[in-house]
Amino acid sequence: MVITGTAKKLPVVALPLLAILLLLLPCTGAGAAAAVTSATIDGSRSQHLPLRGPSLRGPESVAFDGAGEGPYSGVSDGRVLKWNGQAAGWSTYAYSPGYDIRACTASRLRPAELTESRCGRPLGLRFHYGSGNLYIADAYKGLMRVGPGGGEATVLVTEADGVPLRFTNGVDVDQVTGEVYFTDSSMNYRRSQHERVTATGDSTGRLLKYDPRTNQVTVLQAGITYPNGLAISADRTHLVVALTGPCRLLRHWIKGPKAGTSEILADLPGYPDNVRRDRRGGFWVALHRERNELPFGPDSHLLAVRVGADGQVLQVMRGPKSVRPTEVVERKGGKLYMGSVELPYVAVVSA
Fold first, then answer.
1. Which residue among the candidates 60, 195, 327, 342 is catalytic per the annotation?
2. pLDDT band at 199; cut points 50, 70, 90
3. Of 290, 221, 270, residue with least CA distance to 250
């Protein structure tokens, strides 16, 4: 999850000071990989799965269960919702311990930003298909799990090596072993202070593993600059982690002779959020905005890139600046489901 700018076309002088500073801060990567595109996908032509409620927004992550049902997505009032088709729409699937819908429902006088530390803010979501368990990376509650059928989630991890999780963010699951990999974006800042992670160049993020068989938590790597979403590779040998501030993808090896080591996989043309495997051995990477993007000018920017297993950009998706995706999930038939931390819907794009 990252929010780094505004989508409205406003003069620079009208932008908050922090937004101006973020616009002037380039990614720290050496240079974005050149895109070798078979076609540019038009992300403006999409179907919407709208949330219900005037203040409900932010379907950050998009997940599907082992039966292909969904999508499921975490939203601004702390719940995880399930899509049941156009007729029925969204329904509550999961929530954190102690959740109170009356206290957590946002309003004009009580925006979600004021309630999320109490109510939770689900970010990354991923099912373990064999067990039917849904793992939830909640920015404030930590790593949680809810069993088949949903309901109240169980908090599994709130600290690692004696250090509390302050900004739990991305998650993925090894479908063979059931091991869960997740990120803690900063040891200094919470989600409500996410701009500070980018603006200060904070490098206290961590990559972690949770073993459900032993309940053991392992810090795989510390001292990372803004680790965000992550995905396990198709051959299960490594993890690909989005580094938001540096505009890069990190490859961390979990098997083979390089196990325990990391290397840069790709420099990206924008600020990445979540990473999900595509259906061809590569990855879809959602981009919240482009490098050095300004709020004025042509109303078009990169929404996402598809990279190969070698990190080369193979395909791009473009769309209006009002759309700042946090995740892109590829499904059968070439449909791309797109989450956003700002918008009141999940978008479905046909590739």
1. 327
2. confident
3. 221
Q: Three-class SS string for the chain?
A: CCCCCCCCCCCHHHCCHHHHHHHHCCCCCCCCCCCCCCCEEECCCEEEEECCCCCCCCCCCCECCCCCCCCEEECCCCCEEEECCCCCCEEEEEECCCCCHHHHCCCCCCCHHHHHHHHCCEEEEEEECCCCEEEEEECCCEEEEECCCCEECEEEECEECCEECCCEEEEEECCCCCCEEEEECCCCCCHHHHHHHHHCCCCCEEEEEEECCCCEEEEEEEEECCEEEEEECCCCCEEEEEECCCCEEEEEECCCCCCCCEEEEEECCEEEEEEEECCCCCEEEEEEEECCCCCCCCCCEEEEEEECCCCCEEEEEEECCCCCEEEEEECHHHEEEEEECCCCEEEEEEC
The pTM for the full model equals 0.91
Model pLDDT for residues 32-87, shown as the tens digit of each residue: 554 445 589 999 999 999 999 888 999 999 999 999 999 999 999 999 999 999 99
pLDDT in tens, 149-193: 999 999 999 999 999 999 999 999 999 999 999 999 999 999 988
Beta bridge partners of 290: 270
Active site residue 327: yes
